[in-house]
Structure formats: C-alpha cells, structure tokens
Specification:
It contains 19 helices and six strands. With about 450 residues, the chain is mainly α. It has a two-stranded antiparallel ribbon. A two-stranded antiparallel ribbon has the order 3-4. β3 and β4 form a beta hairpin. GO terms for molecular function: phosphatidate cytidylyltransferase activity. It catalyses: a 1,2-diacyl-sn-glycero-3-phosphate + CTP + H(+) = a CDP-1,2-diacyl-sn-glycerol + diphosphate. It holds the Pfam family CTP_transf_1. This is Phosphatidate cytidylyltransferase.
C-alpha cells in the first residue's frame, strides 16, 4: 500500500502540474481571443464626427435634404476655420507654433483613443499614462532640437541651461529609457498581446504626429511663407475637390473613399495650381512672410526683418522654346518677370494636388478598417482634428525635404551651436583661422 502511495504521489503531482499548465495556456488563449475585434461593436463606442451638429444649427437646417444640409454645415465651419487660421497668422510665429503643438496633442489623443477602444485594456491605468509620457518625451527631444538650432547663442549664455544643451540627446534618451523600463514593469500576464500592440500603436502615432509637427516648426523658422503656402494649398485642394465632386462628380476615383471622384480630383488639382501661384505672388511682396525667423540680440526677441533673398525678388526668365510661339502671335516679349519662389510654389502645388490626397486616402482606409466615419467629432461637418490634418502632415514632410534638398543653407545659429560645443583651444584656433581668412580677402582690417 505504501509503495502504491509513493507511485501515486508523483503521478498526482504531474497531473496537477499538467492541469496548471493547461489552465495557464487556457488563460493566455482566452486573453488572446479577447483581443479579436468585434468591429461592429467597436464602431458604436467611437465618435461618428460628421453626424455631430450643434442643436441650433441642426434645427435651422432641418428642412434641407441631408446632402445639402451637410454641404451648408461643412461650408460654414470651413469658413470659420479659415478665419481662425488667418487670426493665428496675424498673431505671429509664436501663435502658429503654439497652434501646431495644440493640434499635435489633439491628433495624438484621437489616434490613441481609437487604440484603447480597439484593444479594450481593462485595469491597466499605467498604459494610458505611458502613452502621454512618451508624447512628452518626444516633444522634449524635438522641440529641444529646434531651440538649440535657432536660439543657441542665447541659451549658451545661461549657465543653468548649458548642461541641458550639451547633453540634450543623452537626457532625451534617458527619459525614453525610463518609459521603456516602466512599460516592461507594467506588463501583466493575461494582457501581453494587447500591451505590446498598444506599445506599437503609440509609437506609430508618435511617428505620424510628433515627428511631422517638428518638421512643421522647422518650416516656420525658414519663413512663414514656407508654412502658410503649403497649408493653404492643401486646404484649397480639399475644398475645391469637394466642390467639383459635389456638383460634377460622376466617376469614382478610389474604393477606399467612395465619395471621391475623378472630376473632383482634377478640378481640385487645377484650382490648387492656379490659386497657389496667385497666393505665392501676393505673399512674396511682404517681408513679414518671406524673412526667416531669427533671434535678434539687439531687440531681445524674435525678428522677421531682413533683406529678402533671391527667391523673393522679381527675376526675368526667357520662355521655353515650345512656348515662344505665343508671344510672337500677340507681339509680346519672349521673357516673363516673376518671383523665383513661384517656381518652387508650382512644385508644392503639384505635390499637394497629386500626392497630398493620398494622405486622406490612407486615413480613409484606416477608418474603414474599424468602420468609423471620422477620428472625432470636434468640428461639425468635418469630424476630428486628425480628419483635417491627415494630408497636412504628409505635405509638411515634403516641404521640409524640399527645403533641405533645394533651398536650405547652413544658418549662423546652427554653426554657432557647433562652435560652442568645441573645446576652448579649438574655438581659438577656429577664430584665428577665420580672422586670417577675412583679412586676406580685405573684409577685415588687420589692426
């Protein structure tokens, strides 16, 4: 009997271990099954933006058919947004930068909220905190980079900031590592798949939103015209494509966005090129728009007063050979006077007309995947903030790459920042070399 009991003990232990293992596997499987999406149920928990209309406006337009009701609501709030944008421009570069930051935070919130709804995290409050922590860390890194690029002279005079400037990237990395360790420590057995999925979701949102807003800020520093013209082109293209599609649209353009038509796409494209050139011509005449934003030590503030560069001074161009028959017919000159920036404006208008809409198609595909109409319901007739800025982020990246590739020259602020990071003896060597060079060229008196 004793021997039988001895045999049964290991068998019972093995059976218990196997049962425990099966239960653990079952728990994990159930957890992963719980991650499978019921898209129809999910759609009910997310905002359906364009259906959200102020009660007063809704009652005033109650007699109109739904198609025209949407047209009127969309038109009213389009003009309100354009008017608000003009007021922000009047407020200057700081107002624009603050607006970019606010829009960035709101777009991030809309994307992250969809992620929370998709993966249905319960009882894991740390992950919501982690998402916002990574947003703050990313902004610290990117906005710090901008501050060092454009305000290096001022910052280096402040002793208490010198450490943060010198080791900015290391500090940023340490902040990110804290978030990374925090995430690993917050992992819960039954929610591994959900937590890692949301971790990836957060980082994609940061890539789309924070990185692009950093590029927008860089564009603003190059001159307001590099921000206002591209943004306006996307707005013009969106509005005119909607108008042409509403009145003349017959031929579907893409399955991802059934309401988009070839008529709207083409009409919006030609309108963007024409109106974009007119806007560029008008803005090139004002220093407020064309001057880079730099810190003026004498004034103790940011300044936009400069001698306009070659791009913003009228130049005479000879017409291409294949177009010279037109002046000969009307007895005109075969040259044309225009601002060189208008040629760059033409490139931006073509991009915003042909490639820009694909940012909207991408967002449409994302929304259709989860059977939602819009990212939010902040703007009646339009949806969420992300619905209005899906194409803007793509455009911002193009403009930044375009400036870097074809326009940009090294700024004194960036060069000075590199000089300040040198050792004292290296700074003296650089100063002596630069002084000798200026004296040899007769630009500096040898005294």
């Amino acid at each position: 009997m004793a021997e039988l009991r001895k045999r049964n003990v290991p068998e019972a232990a093995a059976t218990t271990a196997a049962a425990t293992k099966d239960e653990d596997q079952k728990e994990d499987v159930e957890s992963e099954d719980d991650a499978k999406l019921d898209v129809d149920e999910l759609a009910k928990t997310l905002p359906q933006g364009t259906d959200h209309t102020p009660e007063l406006l809704g009652s005033a337009l109650s007699g109109l058919p739904d198609r025209w009701k949407n047209w009127v609501i969309r038109g009213i709030f389009t003009f309100l947004m354009i008017g608000t944008f003009c007021l922000i421009i009047y407020g200057g570069p700081l107002a624009l930068m603050a607006t970019v930051l606010i829009v960035q935070v709101k777009c991030f919130e809309e994307i992250i909220n969809i992620g929370y709804a998709v993966y249905r995290i319960h009882g894991l409050p740390w992950f919501r905190s982690l998402s916002w922590y990574f947003l703050i860390t990313s902004n610290y890194f990117f906005y710090g980079e901008n501050l060092m690029d454009y305000f290096a002279v001022v910052i280096n005079r402040m002793e208490y900031l010198r450490f943060l400037v010198t080791y900015h990237r290391f500090v940023s990395f340490c902040l990110y590592i804290i978030g990374f360790v925090w995430f690993v420590l917050s992992l819960v057995k039954k929610y591994y798949m959900k937590q890692f999925s949301l971790f990836a979701w957060t980082h994609v949102a940061l890539l789309i939103v924070v990185t692009q807003s950093y590029l927008i800020i860089q564009n603003i520093f190059e001159g307001l015209i590099w921000f206002i013209v591209p943004v306006s082109m996307i707005v013009i293209n969106d509005v005119m494509a909607y108008v042409f599609g509403f009145f003349f649209g017959r031929t579907p353009l893409i399955k991802l966005s059934p309401k988009k038509t070839w008529e709207g796409f083409i009409g919006g494209g030609f309108s963007t090129v024409g109106l974009g050139l007119l806007m560029s011509y008008a803005m090139c005449q004002y220093r407020y728009f064309v001057c880079p934003i730099e810190y003026n030590e004498a004034l103790g503030r940011m300044s936009m007063d400069c001698e306009p560069s070659y791009l913003f001074k009228p130049q005479e161009y000879t017409l291409p050979t294949f177009l010279q028959f037109m002046p000969s017919i009307f007895k005109w000159k075969n040259t044309i006077t225009m601002y060189p920036f208008m040629l760059h404006s033409l490139s931006m208008s073509i991009f915003s007309s042909v490639i820009g809409p694909f940012g909207g198609f991408f967002a449409s595909g994302f929304k259709r995947a989860f059977k939602i109409k819009d990212f939010g319901d902040v703007i009646p007739g339009h949806g969420g903030i992300m619905d209005r800025f899906d194409c803007q982020y793509l455009m911002a990246t193009f403009v930044n790459v375009y400036i870097t590739s074809f326009i940009h020259t090294a700024s004194p602020q960036k060069l000075l920042q590199q000089v300040f990071n040198l050792k004292p003896e290296q700074q003296l060597q650089l100063f002596q070399t630069l002084q000798d060079s200026l004296q040899n060229r007769g630009l500096l008196n040898a005294s």
